[in-house]
Design a protein that fits this description.
31% of the residues lie in helices and 22% in strands. The protein is of the alpha+beta class and 261 residues long. This is Inhibitor I9 domain-containing protein. It holds the Pfam family Peptidase_S8.
Length: 261
């Protein structure tokens, strides 16, 4: 009978340990559900942080102290932008963003928006193949057009067969929108083109002699949204690559057009 108090203490210890673990698990689940992707703008760093390879370290310095480990920081930081803006995209709670506002160098932060693919036609520009500005521009020869969209069908007749590059994700266009916008921008001359045997003619982009640089920033098909963080990451790389023109056939239906920049 003397062992009973000892066994009782073990039971209590295990009981409270399970409660603590359950509470921690519940807190982690709650935090996960409260996380949002924020676009965070910070001032440009000075000194040692100004080097490109140290920018990510500068951006991580704005994360809460509770994420001191590099593993936790890496899970939260989605993109550390190098060129297009001074800032980063990260998964944060409202409370963490509020605390971040007190850190020197913080400029602003807001939840990212969802951007949708936009369909448009260039015919209103009034370009003519045999005369005027289009011909005088040499059809874009030597220019590099960066297309940020849902990918491309490389085998499409509007594009040259010579392609090179790398891709973290399959660059294939799921719904045709990326191929449509890329061919509108710089599709080669395709003679005797038609749609199901109708409307035969010449299909050509606005700058058929230009080069295309394709950046897949939209995933999931025709009804999917394109996240701001992915779009900014694509812009960041495109600027680094040195493209001459950027093509983004995207629209944010949640706000007026003049505010979507």
């Amino acid at each position: 009978m003397a062992a009973t108090p000892f066994l009782f203490l073990i039971f209590l210890f295990n009981f409270y340990l399970e409660i603590a673990q359950a509470a921690q698990y519940t807190a982690e689940i709650t935090e996960k559900h409260n996380l949002q992707t924020y676009i965070v703008h910070v001032s440009k760093p000075a000194g040692t942080f100004s080097q490109t390879h140290n920018l990510e370290k500068w951006h991580k310095s704005f994360l809460p102290f509770s994420m001191a480990s590099s593993e936790k920081q890496q899970q939260r930081i989605l993109y550390s932008y190098q060129n297009i803006i001074s800032g980063f995209a990260a998964r944060l709670t409202k409370e963490e963003v509020k605390a971040m506002e007190e850190i020197d160098g913080f400029v602003s932060a807001r939840p990212e928006r969802k951007i949708r693919l936009q369909k448009h036609t260039p015919s209103f520009l009034g370009l003519h193949q045999q005369m005027g500005f289009w011909k005088e521009s040499n059809f874009g020869k030597g220019m590099i057009i960066g297309v940020l969209d849902g990918g491309i069908f490389p085998s499409h007749p509007s594009f040259a067969k010579a392609m090179k590059g790398v891709a973290d994700e399959p660059p294939i266009d799921v719904d045709g929108h990326g191929t449509h916008t890329a061919s509108t921008a710089a599709g080669s001359f395709v003679y005797n083109a038609d749609t199901l045997g109708n409307a035969k003619g010449t299909a050509v982009g606005m700058a058929p002699y230009a080069h295309l640089a394709i950046y897949k920033v939209c995933f999931g098909g025709p009804t999917a949204d394109c996240t701001e963080s992915d779009i900014l990451a694509g812009l960041d790389i495109a600027v680094q690559d040195g493209v001459d023109v950027l093509s983004l056939s995207l629209v944010d239906v949640s706000m007026p057009f003049f505010k979507t920049t």
